[in-house]
Design goal:
The complex is a heterodimer. By secondary structure, chain A is mostly helical. In chain A, 76% of the residues lie in helices and 4% in strands. By secondary structure, chain B is mainly alpha-helical. Chain B is built from 14 helices and 4 strands. Classes of the chains: A mainly alpha, B mainly alpha.
């Protein structure tokens, strides 16, 4: 059964498997073990990022296309749920309508961009997505009566998911079964299921063709696969999964605005997580997201401490100021592209292979 | 063949003429056209280095915006203590101050270009995927370093006294600084064309764009040539950064990333690697931005994207396609 669930694509490294099991167990048990608002939102953020980064890995790691518009699709999903819930009032129907419309819009835009730019030259795609994403961000803040502009939209979710909702009066195993609890598990099982679907996609014959295109598009075309079609389908799929991730984020936060889902910094976070976790491995998305989101919270604390200690040295204190954490992430990013191109999972797999062949 | 090749030039004139009836009044149109040309010239100065580097070495530098931002910030630091020169009414003193700022900005941008080429770009020649990722990383680091040195806030960069305000030609107001931008832009364009078309180095660069291996096999060190082009491109971006900063009258660390999108659109429109295409593309973008900004401000935010899509539908390789290996 596990074989079917994982589509025959195991972590292929005992150490990586152990980390993965630990992460999944931790995420599963967070509401019982660490029942606090902060730990729960950190865990929810990890979940959303797992799906978002895995969908990006389909593009970057498996198809070899660099897109800078992934947050646009993420944002479309989040705005879809937010706008529908504001207009139609809280309810499952609002979420469903918003989600379907968002998915349709994402598929349409991804299809258009793909046809437009993948036809010409793959490198066009990176530049054009950058431009389109910037335009979309402007659009979202301009249409303020619709999107709430820079302020964003706060909205209500269906009653079952509201924090005030209590399923039982008593706590179960130390956790109160309230709306947040249910929302968290909605996120957990959605992400788990969607991740397994993604794993299924990349291990299907279709996924193999994508990898062939990544390795050598000319040869793939020569064998008889229309690379434009495969690249475009991959772009659309990646966009759809990103839209779903956005919708989950909106449901969790009960809010959406340009900074939470559309900002370019999230795009950089995605890039960083994919590279650090391991491009073209899917599991890298899980490990990368968990490490990254944890580091994001604690790295800034550490930097605040170091910066405080370096107060007398003017430039050094500025270098380590917690606001400059992106500087260090950028350095980490460049260094990992150089020395660590296969990421954590790739490195662990290589080690496992080296051990068995010795 | 000749008429086909000159078609894109006619596009600039056509766009300007098509806008005339829409704008309605001749003086307003003249003001907008000069403003558009000036903006186009500045964008051209910034983008020329990027398109040269791509054409010659097939390297797409997502970090090009860093040189722009550094150029503008250095100029700001140079102009700040020269208050006596910039506030004096004499045009010569003003231009002297700007000239100094430009020289400093170009020197700093060139120096950063050397480091950038050595550390960021050189290890990833021939691998587009890694190039995009790593130059993007370089861009983040550069932007954060600017914040470390100058702080994260927006800093005003006022125009020197004699360049403020506008000349009145008939009823048309022509801003003085925009005239300067047109002059500088034309000078850079002519100089670039001269170097590329009339000198030995230009011949080698053009040959390298066409067929790198052939030039290498003739005994020229194309790598050294490339470093030269990269550094020159960075210096041009620094110069463009000064012009852009004065045009916006303020500098902000994120300006590199903002301008990046604009110059990508320009070099896609022009045809990746083509200098003339870059020039025409920049003028089109500048004119389009100013006309739509006047006619339909909401549309103006997306005018560049719409322009790019229209051009790509017509010529998928850009206005001046460069023969590729």
């Amino acid at each position: 059964m596990i074989r079917t669930l994982l589509s025959g694509d195991y972590p292929r490294s005992r150490f990586a498997a152990a980390i993965l099991i630990a992460i999944v167990l931790a995420l599963l048990l967070v509401p019982f073990v660490f029942p606090g608002a902060r730990s729960l939102s950190v865990a929810a953020k990890v979940l959303v990022f797992v799906l978002l980064v895995a969908s990006y890995d389909l593009l970057l790691g498996y198809t070899g296309i660099v897109s800078f518009a992934h947050t646009m699709f993420f944002g479309i999903g989040a705005y879809g749920v937010a706008i529908a819930s504001t207009r139609m009032g809280p309810g499952w129907d609002a979420i469903a309508v918003g989600l379907v419309l968002a998915l349709a819009l994402s598929a349409l835009i991804a299809f258009a961009i793909g046809l437009f730019s993948l036809r010409v030259k793959a490198i066009f795609f990176a530049m054009i997505t950058l431009a389109v994403a910037a335009a979309f961000q402007t659009l979202a803040s301009q249409l303020s009566e619709f999107t709430g502009g820079e302020d964003g939209l706060s909205f209500k979710v269906p009653e079952v998911l509201q924090p005030s909702f209590e399923l039982f009066e008593d706590t179960v195993l130390g956790a109160s079964i309230d709306g947040r609890f249910l929302t968290y598990y909605l996120l957990f099982f959605s992400v788990l299921a969607l991740f397994l679907v993604l794993l299924r996609i990349v291990n299907s014959p279709f996924g193999r063709v994508l990898q062939a295109i990544r390795e050598n598009d000319f040869r793939a075309e020569a064998i008889g696969y229309r690379t434009v079609v495969f690249r475009t389908v991959s772009t659309v799929l990646g966009a759809l999964f990103a839209t779903l991730a956005g919708a989950l984020l909106a449901i969790w936060l009960r809010y959406n605005g340009p900074d939470t889902s559309l900002s370019f910094e999230i795009m950089l976070d995605i890039l960083l997580i994919v590279v650090i976790g391991g491009m073209g491995t899917m599991y890298g998305a899980v490990i990368g997201s968990a490490i990254f989101v944890l580091a994001q919270s604690y790295l800034q604390d550490l930097m605040r401490f170091v910066s405080g200690a370096l107060e007398p040295v003017p430039i050094a204190a500025a270098l380590f100021s917690p606001d400059r954490w992106l500087l260090w992430l950028g350095l980490l990013f460049v260094l990992s592209v150089y020395y660590f191109p296969t990421g954590i999972v790739g490195r662990l797999r290589a080690r496992a292979i080296a051990r068995t062949t010795r | 063949m000749k008429s086909r090749a000159s078609l894109p030039y006619a596009l600039v004139v056509l766009l300007a003429l098509a806008a005339l009836p829409l704008v309605g009044s001749l003086p307003t149109w003249a003001t907008l056209t000069v403003a558009g040309l000036a903006m186009g010239m500045i964008v051209f100065i910034i983008a020329s280095g990027l398109t040269l580097v791509f054409g010659l070495m097939d390297v797409l530098n997502f970090g090009h915006g860093v040189f722009i931002a550094f150029g503008a910030f250095v100029a700001m630091s140079v102009l700040a203590p020269l208050g006596a020169w910039t506030e004096s009414a004499s045009l010569a003193a003003n231009l002297g101050a700007i000239g100094l700022a430009m020289l400093a900005a170009m020197a700093v941008a060139a120096a950063i270009g050397v480091v950038f080429e050595r550390l960021i770009v050189r290890p990833v020649y021939g691998n587009h995927l890694k190039q995009i990722l790593i130059t993007m990383g370089g861009m983040i680091i550069g932007e954060e370093l600017i914040k470390v040195i100058w702080g994260p806030q927006q800093i005003p960069l006022p125009l020197p006294a004699a360049l403020r305000g506008a000349y009145l030609v008939g009823d048309a107001a022509i801003e003085k600084y925009r005239l300067l931008a047109v002059v500088v832009g034309l000078a850079v364009f002519v100089a670039l064309l001269f170097v590329l078309e009339r000198t030995k180095i230009g011949l080698l660069i053009r040959a390298g764009v066409q067929d790198r291996e052939m030039v290498e096999s003739l005994g020229y060190r194309i790598r050294r040539l490339f470093v030269g082009v990269f550094v020159a491109g960075s210096a041009l971006a620094g110069l463009g950064g000064v012009m852009w900063g004065l045009y916006q009258q303020s500098v902000v660390p994120q300006m590199g990333a903002q301008v990046n999108i604009l110059i990508f659109i320009v070099i896609i429109i022009g045809g990746l690697g083509s200098t003339t295409g870059c020039f025409v593309g920049a003028l089109l973008v500048g004119l389009m931005a100013n006309y739509t900004g006047f006619l339909a401000p909401k549309v103006a935010l997306f005018s560049n994207i719409l322009l790019m899509m229209a051009i790509l539908l017509w010529r998928p390789q850009g206005l001046f396609p460069v023969a590729r290996r």
